[in-house]
Amino acid sequence: MLKAGLRLACPRCTTEVVVVRASADDVMLTCSESVLVSVDSAREGTGHPTIGSDGMLLGKRYVDEPADLELLCTKAGPGALACDGRVLGIRGAKPLPSSD
Amino acid sequence: MDLNLLLDMAVTGYGNRTAVSEGGDALTYAELGRAADLGARLVRRIGADAVIFVGPSHPAYPAALFASAAAGVPFIPLNYRLGREQLQGLMAAHPKALVVSDEPWIGEEMPERARSLRGYLATLRDDRPSPDEPDVVPLSPGQSDDVAVVLHTSGTSGTPKAALLRHRNLASYVFTTVEFANASDEEAALVTVPTYHIAGLANLVSNLYAGRRIVYLEAFDPQGWLETIRSEGITQAMVVPTMLARVVRFLDGADASVPTLRTLAYGGSRMPIPVLEEALARFADTDFVNAYGLTETSSTIALLGPDDHRAALTSNEPGARARLGSVGRVIPSVEVEVRDDDGAPTAGQVPGLIFLRGDQVSGEYAGESALDVDGWFPTGDRGWLDDEGYLFIEGRADDTIIRGGENVSPAEIEDVLMAHPAVADAAVVGLSDDEWGQRIAAVVTIDGDGDAVTPAVLREWVRDHLRSSKTPDLVAFWPELPRTATGKLLRRQILEELSSTLSTENPATS
Fold first, then answer.
1. Do B175 and A18 touch (CB under 8 A)?
2. What is the ipTM of this complex?
3. Domains of chain B with CATH codes
4. Which of residues 222-261 of B touch A (CB under 8 A)?
5. Could you report the per-residue pLDDT of A52-72, keeping only the tens digit for each?
C-alpha cells in the first residue's frame, strides 16, 4: 500500500524516493520501466541509461497530478520515474516564505 | 520518512558547509553526520533508551538530536532554567537516558550517563573505533512511526504535557514546507529561541534542510543581537515578540542598520500591533513573516508572509488592514476548521475552537492521542477565519472570560490597552464573581513617563475603543508581567497573584 513515509528505490539504479503524499493505492511506480521496490530490498544496482529524463535530482519533489502523488528524491539517479506510465514532473509550486 | 534521511540528504548535498556555530564551536554538515553516527554508538554502548538535553543553544544540541535519531531513541530537550527538583522529576521517567548538560549536579549524580556539551562533542571527535571493539555497533535508526522528540508544552493555563512528535510528523513538516538546499552559500540564520521549545527544534531542522548556516546566540540582548547580525552577515532571524519589543525600544526610533537581514520571522506568542508597526518601520528593507503553530503540530501551520504584511500596511480597507493582527493563511499541507461549542463548523467570521489536520499534526501525548476519529486535533485555541482565509487567534479557549453570559477574549482588550501610549504591557484575566460569573481584571505595566495614568483613565480608554461590557472592572499596575521564555503570558500565575492581593488589600485600589 502506498502511504506517506514509504521509501522506495529503483531495483536497477541509484534512485531512491520517499512518498510525501499519496491518495490512490493501485498505481504502478516505475523507474525506466523497472517497477520500484522497497528501499530495503536487494538491488542489482547495475544501472541503466537515462531514458528521456534529466535524471532524478536530490531533494526535488516529483508529482503526478492525476494520482495526487508526490515523491521526494532522497538519492539522485538517472530516472525517469513514472506513475502508471506518466513521467513525473518536478513540483513547481511557489515556495513558502521562510518561517524559521 | 525520518530525521536520519534529512541529515543524509544534507551531508550528500552540502557536506562541506558550516551547519552550526556558537561562539568558537562549529560543525560542518559532514561533521554533524559523523557526530550523529558516533553519538548513536555511544547511546548503544551505555544502553541508553533516550537522549536528554538540558542546556542552551550549542552545536552539541543538533549533534545530540541526530544521535538519538540514528540510535532510534527519543530526544528529550528539557528547560535548563528549571530548578533541580523539577528537572529531577522530569528525568526520573528516563532513568537510562544519556544526558547532555553542563549542570554540575547532573555530572555528579550520574557520571556514567552524563556528558557536558563540549565534552560530548569532544568525545565524538576522539571516538575512533578501538582494535578490541567491533568496528560497527549494529544500530536500528529511528523509523517513520518512532517517537523522535518529546517536548513539554508551555502549560500557561494548565499542567504542562509531554507531547510526542514522531519522525513522520517532523519530516513531513520539513519536506512539505522547505525546499531542499534552497539556501545560497552566504545565507545564515540567527537563532535565539530556546532548545526545549518547538520553535528551537523546528528552526534547527528547517535550516539544516535548507542548507543554511545556523548561528546560535545564547544570551539575548538587543545590542548583541543587532551586532551579531552585522558581524556574521545574518540573512534570516527568528525572534519571539518580547525580543522584538526590546529591540524596538533599544533602537528608540533609529534605523536598525542590518543590510544583510532579508527575513525576520516572529512567533511563539501574540505580537502587539504597535510593536510590529514600529519594527516594520525600523527594519524597512527586511521581509517580515509571522509563523503560528503549536508544539503538537510540529510548529508552523499558518503563515503571514512578507506580501501580506505589505498589503495590510498599505491598505485603507479596515478588513485588509486588520490582517496585520492575523497569523496569515494555513499552509497547503494542513487543513483547518473552526467549530462552535457543539462541534459544528462556523461560518462568516464567527469565532470558535480551532481544529487542525495533517501529516505534521501529532496531537499525541505520552500514552494518549487527542485526535478525533477523523484525525482532527483540537488545538485549544479560539479564533476565526476571514473571507480570504486569514486566521485570527483570540487565545486559549481556557482563557476566555465569560462575563454575564458574554464571551470576552482577553487578547482583544489587551490589544486596546497596549495601544495606549503610556502602557508597555498588559494582561487581562477573569476573576470569579458571584454576580457576573467572572469580572474582567487588567494588569498593566507603564512606560517610564506614564505617571499620570490612573485606572479610571485606562477604563475610559477601553470603553471608548470597545464597549462597556468589555471594560475592565479592575485595573492594577505591576512593575512586570510574568511571561515564558517565548513571551507567553503566565495567566495562571497572574490570576493567583491578583486573587491573593485582592483578598488582603483594600478593594478601593480599583
1. yes
2. 0.88
3. 3-219 (3.40.50.12780), 294-398 (2.30.38.10), 400-509 (3.30.300.30)
4. 236, 238
5. 557 889 999 999 988 899 999
